[in-house]
Design brief:
9 strands; binds guanosine-5'-monophosphate; three-stranded antiparallel beta sheet; 31% strand; 178 residues; alpha/beta
Length: 178
């Protein structure tokens, strides 16, 4: 059950306006690849890419570490690789949420070996107090407390991705996870 709304749809959309402006200022007219980390980033990347110019392309990668549970297992695997070769490209990873940092750390290590021209990260949500590994975040939407959140792409056991707001899930429900 949803316990409370943490970030409203209006707050998310206003923040994306700000972030898109920063990205436009930083990259100018240079081609930019938005690399969305599935599945949680599917809404944020669709809203972000429509705020950017004609030189933006989108690709997807899926990395698994959670299963249906609440905590990162640290056992990070690529489940769906990118479709394109990123050598020489400016790449901006679009993450829904950075928690322990293990998923992103692993992804950054893999992508660096592919020699992009630049590799930066936009995380819509960051939980700084849950961090186990330091990961560089170039753009951050919101810093949030260490609670389990759902909505705007984020799921619990595949549900709630379609909520327009970001909400905190009640302990009762999330503690049922394996
Ligand atoms: P990390 O490896 O940083 O601990 O975890 C990153 C991944 O864990 C995210 O991409 C996301 O899939 C999942 N995750 C971390 N915290 C939450 C949360 O509060 N809610 C949901 N739905 N997923 C989370």
């Amino acid at each position: 059950m949803i316990q409370s709304i943490l970030i409203s749809e209006a707050q998310i959309q206003a923040k994306l306006d700000e972030i898109a402006e920063q990205i436009r200022a930083d990259y100018g007219d240079r081609p930019l690849l938005l690399l969305a980390v599935l599945k949680g980033s599917f809404l944020v990347v669709s809203d972000l890419c429509r705020r950017l110019g004609d030189n933006v392309t989108v690709d997807f990668v899926q990395v698994s570490s959670y299963g249906n549970g609440r905590k990162s297992s640290g056992n990070v695997q690529i489940r769906k690789d990118l479709d394109i070769n990123i050598e020489g490209l400016d790449v901006l990873i679009v993450e829904d949420i950075v928690d322990s940092g293990q998923t992103l750390d692993h992804l950054l290590q893999i992508l660096r070996t592919r020699n992009p021209n630049s590799l930066k990260v936009f995380a819509l949500l960051s939980k700084p107090t849950a961090r186990v590994l330091h990961v560089p975040l170039d753009y951050v939407g919101f810093e949030i407390p260490d609670a389990f959140v759902v909505g705007y792409g984020l799921d619990f056991a595949e549900r709630y991705r379609n909520l327009r707001d970001i909400a905190v899930l009640s302990e009762d429900e999330s503690s049922l996870a394996p």
